[in-house]
Design a protein that fits this description.
mainly beta
């Protein structure tokens, strides 16, 4: 019942401004990571929109549900626990443009993430604050801070990025936690070379807690270098193909203080992804 109420609140907040029909889209993502010991498959379904409230204020929201499935090569844990993880999150972004040279962003990310079944008791809230300094038409600098899960647990991290816009088709952004190079050879083809840190954590089910004494969370993290190709099929449909490699990949069990209680020694490896987006 609590989970249903939480989902309804997220949906009410998300769709409160959909009538404006501004940058509204739905998407689904399928990704896979394979190593000799563990295979990870993920599916994601989400919707997002952005609304310009006036010349200074804007609001964006992204609501998504994710499902993660793990298969162990030696058959361990098969059919019992540590196989399925779910996550429901809402990313809310508020932007204030003080003037043409400076913008402020405040980001809230409430989410629930569990093994097997979502539970409202596992509600967490992450956040970020950053400022864009617009130097000129081609150069911009972003500085900020965030409470993020990119290392597989809640961590305070800096945000810094230098963006150089060579032309309407060529753009470079260097920083942390993400660096990317974007190029479009025409209005329908976009290419992205990206390096980013990403991670997540999930509350464990009762059975897993009993087996792994003192463990209460599962943690996933890695640094990913990837190449993406996005094809604009028409005015509404977009296809995105992704191929990359995960470095320093980690799959851990943590206690309530986020100390490691068990390490699965997950290997680095390749990942593949497909995203289908419909933009209204």
């Amino acid at each position: 019942m609590k989970k249903v109420i939480f989902v309804k609140l997220l949906c009410m907040l998300f769709f409160s401004s959909v009538n404006a029909q501004i940058d509204f889209s739905t998407y689904t993502v399928i990704t896979g990571q394979t190593t000799n010991a563990i295979k990870v498959n993920e599916a994601l379904l989400g919707s997002s929109f952005k609304k310009e409230l006036n010349s200074k204020y804007s609001f964006a929201a992204d609501v998504k549900y994710g499902y993660k499935n793990l298969a162990y090569s030696d058959g361990a844990f098969s059919g019992y626990f540590l196989n399925e993880f779910e996550k429901l999150e809402s990313i809310l972004d508020f932007t204030y443009s003080e003037h043409k040279k400076r913008r402020y962003h405040f980001n809230l990310q409430p989410f629930i993430a569990n093994e097997n079944q979502l539970k409202l008791s596992s509600l967490y809230v992450l956040y970020a604050f950053k400022t864009d300094f617009i130097i000129n038409q081609k150069n911009a600098l972003t500085i900020g801070a965030a409470k993020s899960s990119i290392f597989g647990k809640p961590s305070l991290i800096p945000i810094i990025s230098y963006e150089y816009k060579y032309s309407d088709r060529l753009n470079l952004s260097i920083g942390f936690p993400e660096t990317k190079f974007k190029y479009a050879n025409n209005s329908r083809n976009n290419f992205v070379l990206k390096n980013d840190f990403n991670g997540s954590f999930y509350a464990l089910d009762t059975t897993s807690k009993l087996l792994f004494d003192t463990s209460s969370k599962a943690s996933f993290s890695q640094m990913t270098t990837s190449f993406e190709y996005e094809r604009n099929l028409d005015a509404n449909w977009f296809l995105n193909f992704k191929a990359g490699y995960d470095f320093n990949r980690k799959y851990l069990l943590l206690d309530n203080n986020y100390h490691t209680t068990f390490n699965f020694d997950m290997e680095d490896g390749f990942n593949l992804g497909l995203k289908i987006k419909y933009k209204y």
